[in-house]
Amino acid sequence: MNSKIICSGTIATALAGLSLAAFASTVQMPVECTNPDGMCVDAKDRLVIAAPNNDHRRPGAVFRLDAPGAKPYLWFEVPPNPASGYAAPMGVCFGPEGELYVCDNQNDSQGRLLRIAFTNDRVASCEAIAVGLSNANGVKYLRGKLYLTQAFLSGVKRADGASTSGLYMFDARDRGVRVRNDLSDSQCVFSDITRNPNIKGGLNGVAIDPRGRIYTGNYGDGHVWRLTPGADGRIAKSERILEGGAGIVTPDGMCVDAAGTVYVADMRGDALVVLDENGRPRCVRKGGFTRPSEPCAWRGSVYVANYGGTTLERVTP
């Protein structure tokens, strides 16, 4: 597919400036957040933000923004991994019982997929659904299954130097599943190869549309997949709806709004991009971000996490 991004060149610069002035605002995260990342919306229509706090000056934590215009605040600190002494929450999503699923991104294949339950908005329990993950990144819940991206599978070694990434599927009832981070894992339902010699990361963000189709992007090679699960939850159909170089530099986090519109945070392209049903990209905002990593549609706007800073950008398309 030879789709071309609309927001480019001199016209793009002018449009981006207009967009910044008319439709964007910046939300400052509190001091306990040193870099925001994954986001989702809970059953009470509150925006939830995960912060891995990669410099470890602050514990990895989850924050809340209860209404547009309010101030985000620390909700809770994620229980640390006993092996490393810290937690690095990235992708987050809610399940049907109000439970929060958290990707704890750890080094040395010590990552976890956590299930956190609440009583009166306080953490009541924290259980590990999966352990030993090499690059737990994004997660979404669909029909009793959890779909998790691993941008790099440490157990796969290729002679050509390319890297392998995977989409994993866990049952929400699983507990303590240990993975090997290679293609022999039965939980790996889709994999991709990243051939970019300079950027090894592969499948990164993940989103699900109202029809139950899964979207994920190859960060290093720049293409986007649409995956259709079968009755057993495993991938029955895969479509590469956007080719690398056709409009998005590095697809990172993704989200889908209630109308089915797909938004992609282009981290190195410094942009928020929309994909139509055929995968054609349109730039919503170009510039003004700080390593944008995750979008989340909430109350008529799209909030974008500035992974390289301490703020969110609120963009109203």
Keywords:
single chain; 317 residues; mainly beta; Neuraminidase; five-stranded mixed sheet; four-stranded antiparallel sheet; 1 helix; 5% helix; 48% strand; globular; disordered N terminus
Describe this structure in words.
This protein is mainly beta. The protein has one domain: Neuraminidase. Helix content is 5%, strand content 48%. The protein contains one helix and 25 strands. Strand 16 (214-218) and strand 17 (224-229) form a beta hairpin. The chain is globular.
Quick recap:
The protein is mainly β. It contains one helix and 25 strands. The chain has one helix at 9-23, and strands spanning 24-28, 39-41, 47-51, 61-65, 73-77, 89-94, 100-104, 111-119, 122-133, 136-142, 145-150, 163-171, 177-178, 188-194, 203-208, 214-218, 224-229, 235-242, 251-256, 262-266, 271-275, 281-286, 292-298, 301-306, 311-315.
Distance between the termini: 25 Å
Global mean pLDDT: 93
CATH class reads Mainly Beta
* Rg: 18 Å
**CATH architectural designation:** 6 Propeller
The low-confidence runs, each spanning 5 or more residues with pLDDT under 50, are 1-22
Assign the structural class, choosing from mainly alpha, mainly beta, alpha/beta, alpha+beta, or little secondary structure: mainly beta
Strand order of the main beta sheet, please? 6-7-8-9-13
CATH topology group: Neuraminidase
Number of domains: 1
Provide a count of the helices. 1
CATH superfamily: TolB, C-terminal domain
Could you give the order of the helices and strands? HEEEEEEEEEEEEEEEEEEEEEEEEE
